[in-house]
Amino acid sequence: MSDSPNDGAFASLPLAPQLLANLDSLGYHAMTPIQAASLPPVLAGRDVIAQARTGSGKTAAFGLGLLSRLEVSRFQVQALVLCPTRELADQVAGEIRRLARTLPNVKVLTLCGGAPFGPQLASLAHGAHVVVGTPGRIEEHLRKGSLDLAALDVLVLDEADRMLDMGFQPSLEAIVGATPASRQTLLFSATFSDEIRDIAQGLMREPAEVAVAESHDESTIRQRVYRVADEAERFAALRGLLLKHRPRSSVVFCNTRREAQELADALCEAGFSALALHGDLEQRDRDRILVLFANHSVSILVATDVAARGLDIAALDAVFNYQIARDLEVHVHRVGRTGRAGGSGIACTLVSAGEAYRLERLNEFLGEALEEAPLPPRSVLAQEPFLPEMATLQLDGGKKQKVRPGDILGALTGEGGIEGAQVGKIKVLERSAYVAVRREVAKAALAQLGTGKLKGRSFRARRVSR
């Protein structure tokens, strides 16, 4: 894996003189770290899987790569860039046009859901060199026979993790099936999750892995121990720590099912958004809770260790140990759930006087004494509790009714007027579908789904409560 933070000059790359002259006129002199690390293997024709966030300069990295391979005289679709949302596709297409402006007659076409189909058919009939689009609409054009990818040289998956979050994996697989096996594949993702690695394994040939080194202080887990006098102070301490750190998503670990449920109820009464996860729940309720938490429609999951086993929770900001786990290895596993994927995380453990012996045993087990810290001042308890940034809507149609993630996204962002950036995870099940939207547009999104049509049919939509 490359970790080079080198930011050399574009002139050191084997780029066409027209592209270099254009980069200079655009003010692109020194490469960003992701460009310096990914462009050499991209230009060498290798498949590349790159960890890169929005704003890192990744569009220029794959844009220059695909433009370098373009044969302008061959009027066929030679490059396809897939993006999770219409807004991102428009940005990417605009950037590729800017990079290509010194090349003669390069045609870049955007094909996104939420836009009328007719004009896209007319544009495709005139031909294009580069297509940028969303998976649902690209798959639709392939099904209708209006898009031909037989001559494709480069396939780019931009923000691949977000496309998986939004439920586009079946569409991605259908699109890849319509491309030549000889193509070059470039995958850009903010995280290297197991899902992303599985996708890469199925799509790519010996890919070069590129990740720009994160600074170490961002990837560490800050562990702190907080002393509490008694059980009454334990709950106030948890409230104070939640209000001080205000994590986007956190798990509070309890040692018993009853305590998990009672604590979740108490947090809700105190104005927080919390759900309990324990062994007394039916599978249907467990599934609903996990969808809400993964969607960021609930901020706090209060869980027992058994119920949390096997949970794949990415980007967890904080873990709170309401007590030290009875099994010390389990305690270490709890703490390891935060600070993943290059992010930072905090782990706060509450210890009463009666549990001092457990803390001693934990310190011995770890081989070092955990740092103790004072509880936040009581004044913090006067702050307003925070609410989750998203709300989840449920449709009573799913795979059986041929509903696809792209249909839901198109219904919201087309006539609905909601921006793609305001739509979160989409999960389509057999007979229902969940979509997360930002809280401030939840009412409008619900009205749009409830009154609009998907696949020419109306589906009942409702907001999923805690």
Automatic annotation (TrEMBL):
Residues 220-381 form the Helicase C-terminal domain. A motif (Q motif) lies at residues 8-36. Keywords: ATP-binding, Helicase, Hydrolase, Nucleotide-binding. The keyword Nucleotide-binding applies. It comes from the Bacteria. CDD domains: DEADc, RRM_EcDbpA_like, SF2_C_DEAD. Pfam families: DbpA (PF03880), DEAD (PF00270), Helicase_C (PF00271). This is ATP-dependent RNA helicase DbpA.
